[in-house]
Structures are given as C-alpha cells and as structure tokens.
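fold description:
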Amino acid sequence: MTVIAPDKVISTILKHDSKVTSYKIALLRAINDVVLTYPDLRTYEAPVAVPLKLLAKFWVAYYWPFVDFVMPIQQGQQVKRDGKVRNDIAFRPALTELRRQWEQAVGGLKNPADGFFLINELKSTRKWQNYPDSLEKALSQAVSAISHTLEMPIRYAGLGEWSVFDKPQSCSTISDKAVSVPGTEERDRCLVIPFDLWNTFRQMSLWVEALCIHEWCLFTERVANINRGAIYSLLTARPNNRRPLTWERNQVDILLMEGAEFTCPWTERRFTQGVAYDLDHVLPIAVYPTNELWNLVPSDPSFNSHQKRDRLPTSERLAIAQPHLEKTYEKYGSSSALDTVLKEDAALRFARVQSDWTFSLELAGAVVDLVEEVAELRNLARF
C-alpha cells in the first residue's frame, strides 16, 4: 500500500479522485463520524478497526433522503450491464424498502433525518420490541447490502487500488494489530484506520464534515440536476426526538418515590419526589442524536428550556457537572433495570469504561470528555 501523508489523504480523495457515485464522499464522512463517536479510542494511540456494518449504518442515515420511493434523488448514473439497467447506487432497493418499512411503522411520517434517528434508536436490542420484525429484517438487509458496496470506495480511494486503506479483514485476524470500536465482534469485517489518519480526522473533524457536504452537494447537483441548496438541507437535517422517554422517566420516578435525590448538573438544583424535572440530553439531540441512558439526566426544566437548549456546556460548567453526573449514574445503578441499560449503552460507546466499582466515576469522565471533544472539534455554541 502506497503511504500518503494523512493531511493530504482526505483532500485528495474529496477533491481529486474520480467519482461516478457519491461513495467516496460518504466513506470519508462516515469515518469522520466514527472518530467523533468514539473519542476515547485516541488514547490507545493505535490503529483502529471499524466494522463495515458500523460504517454502513451511517450510510443508512446519509442516503436516507435520497431514497424517498415517491421522489428518489440520483446519486450517480444508471448503467446498463449484462443487458440490465443497474441502479445508480447498488443498495438503493434495500434502503428504499427499509425507508418504506420505517414510514409504515411510524404512521407515514417523513423526515429527511429519520435515518439518523433509526440507527441510534435501534442500536440497542431492547428497543426492538417497539417495532415490527419486518423493520429489523429490512435494516439487516440494507446494512448487508451497503457493507458489500463499501468495499469499492475503500479499494479505490486515493491513487490506484488499496493506496490508502488495506483490504478489510475479519476482526479476529487483526485483533493483535488494532484496537476495535466498542461492540465489534470477531467475525465482523473491519476497515483498519492507521492511528495517524484517525488522529487527522479527529483534529480536522469540522473541516472534513464541511468539505464532505460541500462536495456531495456539488456532485448531486451535477448528476440529479437539483439545486445544491436543497441538497445541503437534506444532508444537514437533524432528527427530532420523536420517541417519548416514558420508560426512562418511569424508572427515575420510581427511584424518587423510594427516596433518591438527584441534582441538576447545570444549576445544582435538587430534585426529590414531587419536584418537576426534565430528563435532559447532556448532548442535545440536534447535535448528537442518541437516547442512550448516559446521555439522559434529570435537570432543571427552566434552565433546560430557556438557557441550555441546543448548546453545550463550557469546560468550567463541565467540571462542576462531572461529580453530579457521577452521582446520577450511581443512582441509576441502584435500579436493576436502569443499571442493566446504562452498562449496555456505555459498553457500546466507550472503550475504556469498565463495569466494576469505578464504573460511575469512569463513565462521568468519559461523558465529559465526549462533550468536550464534540464541542471543541465542531466549534459549537456553549453556555
């Protein structure tokens, strides 16, 4: 494999590689999002193994607005091969069916960012009980089809074949050479990202995101003859928090009835039974669309609605909040139901958090680190 300086790889692929589909753009955007999703992997200073199925789930979100079965948007040229007309993107039929199944399950509602909501909502197996089996099957088929397609841009990224990335391999064959993202299974085929390239994505995250979206808008405008402004709106749409947090609130209410006390991490207001509270997203849903339990904490309703909103806390506020987050996670641990969910969600997100007696302390530190990373690398507004 030809070695290319990491600070040249990204711009070379986005600006100079030939493109008949948007695959290469989507590949780099997905890698960028994975780097931001698992910030503690940087501490290993080692190559990172990323399952193709994880990258594929990000593609589900990116390509979602382009597979509306009423008004599809081309992502490349249709070609005739072996006497048959091939789709512009190989996985269009599978992703279109997934979107059809989803809209049927949610009553016909449409949002261009529903793909983001879907991949985060159904990351945990416990949430599948709210959806039909046909949706799970459709998601599995779409992820499988996209994972197969991903091999192409990985192979042809850069100058020639395998010039940037090595051929994906099963996790079991590379476990001694790379650290895997949380949740990776031994049989998963993985893309190995060298640490220097991983770190380059991390340091240039905001620029990579902006350039990917810019190049994707230009590409789609060219192949689909749609104004780039409309494409930009689709590519930057973010989901609303449609799912009511009824189960989580009920569990917190039970703890309050049993005498537990929570403290708002932002105002230090205390909550006991009968005191109104919001179940707040530490990382706002518009910034980081996840309802994982570590991201949900009781907070001051007035402050949450009027001051925090979609902003992130400053470093100073995070330092004040960290011990309150730790205490919140400790109290979640006193509920068998919440404890199970919290540890399951943390295991899927943070590589260095262990389920032992230091769990709450380590988790609070990891969450603070994640918030700091997202805020700094994406240059987001803070309170």
Summary: The first helix runs from residue 6 to 15. The radius of gyration is 21 Å.
